[in-house]
Amino acid sequence: MNRLNLCPICSSDRLRTFLTRHQVPVHQNFICADLDQAHAMQRGTLEMAVCDRCGFVFNAAFEPELLAYGEQYENSQMFSQGFDEYVNGLAHRIVAECGDGPRHVIEIGCGKGEFLRRLASSHAANISGAGFDPAYRGAESELDGRLTFHREFFRREHMQSSSDIVVCRHVIEHIADPMKFLAAVREALGDANSTRIYFETPCVDWILDNDVVWDFFYEHCSLFSRRSLAAAFEQARFEVVSVERVFGDQYLWLEARPTDTRTVPRFDTSETPQKAVDFQAVADRRLASWQQSLRELLERGPAVVWGAGAKGVTFSNLVDPEGTLLAGVVDINPSKQGGFLPGTGHPILSPEQLADREVVSALVLNPNYREEIAAQLQRLGLATTVVSLM
Ligand SMILES: [Zn+2]
To answer: Which of 120, 202, 259, 354 could share a disulfide with 239, CB 3.0–4.6 Å?
Structure first.
């Protein structure tokens, strides 16, 4: 294994490892068909390091070849009403900022095409779009050809005009060499200087500020602070218009434009590195206290984790690696139900199944969904109590 000794963003060697976990499942957003596949999930080492110069956080032991974003990869969150509203807000915002003239939107890493479809269908008929994702499965053309989907990486010849909008959501945190990726995007944009670029990615400061131990996992090898994200774009010859914290401060939303002027990136030398040091001091204690809380909850009756996404998978692997304590993990996405969690093999249940299993407690890992989940349990007439871990 080639351990990274230099920061992938600023090339500094002033790196500090603040979290090490061995034998973690490499995939979190992955549905296993049976217990054998769950237990046999490829594992890797998580060695989260922070750069003292720019505040970038990354897995220094990351091996991209261990990952396979294939057909069993499933990361749709659109089944949650709260998330759905959040994404609608983003789409509205893009349309509002870009005016109502005809626009062509390019989405890099379009997944199943949900965001592009929403942009094109719900707001303005004069939006067309092209989605690029080697893992895309589905029709190549939709809405009478206004949307096209391509199972490949975005390249320069895919640009249609300088008024294009480029969107890239929740991709860069999966990429081990973000500078190479941004250079490729910049190269593809050519001299299209009026193109608006929008990127969304988790905010590492939110994770560190709130001691969210389950938000460090293998798929996310590159985590940014507001400043390190801006610095990465500046180095790649973009002018950063803004970087905001969105979705209850959990994500960063960056707007940039291509520029030909090379700006000297401003590096953050203080905040994030210190937060990582503070996090290191509490992470193990946090984990031990959740294990204790779980044991106490189990005395009252069966417990589940709510959400078979990355947070739920990471938490379950941390507190119940043998899969013997939790009764399962609930997910409202029907394509996940009936499957098994990578690593632990916990069964993925529908909310309706909680009644048969007499589940007393549902552990909620993301505060943004707490009320929505409580309302859902109430609608189903279930006595299961929501236990918020944040
Ligand atoms: Zn750095």
So the answer is: 259
pLDDT tens, position by position, 271-300? 899 999 999 999 999 889 989 999 999 999
Distance 121 CA to ligand 1 centre (A): 40
Alpha-carbon distance of 237 to 286, in angstroms, equals 41
Confidence of residue 101 (pLDDT cuts 50, 70, 90): confident
CA of 51 from ligand 1 middle (Å) equals 5
User: Other CB atoms closer than 10 Å to residue 306's CB: what's the count?
Assistant: 30
Cα gap 182→69, rounded to integer Å: 20
CA 235 / ligand 1 centre spacing (Å) = 12
In which residue are the tokens 């990869």 written? 73
CA angle 60, 64, 107 (to 5 degrees): 110
- Per-residue pLDDT tens for 227-267? 999 999 999 999 999 999 999 999 999 999 999 887 788 88
Ligand 1 centre to CA of 12 (Å) is 5
Give φ, ψ of 362 to 5 degrees: -120, 115
How far apart are alpha carbons 377 and 256 in whole angstroms?
42
Closest CA to 256 of 243, 241, 268: 241
Other Cβ atoms closer than 10 A to 289: 12
The 10 Å CB-count burial string (b at 16+, else e) for 229-257 is bbbbbbbbbbbbeebeeebeebbbbbbbb
Q: Which value, in Å, is the radius of gyration of the alpha carbons in the chain?
A: 21
Q: How far apart are CA 166 and CA 321, in angstroms?
A: 40
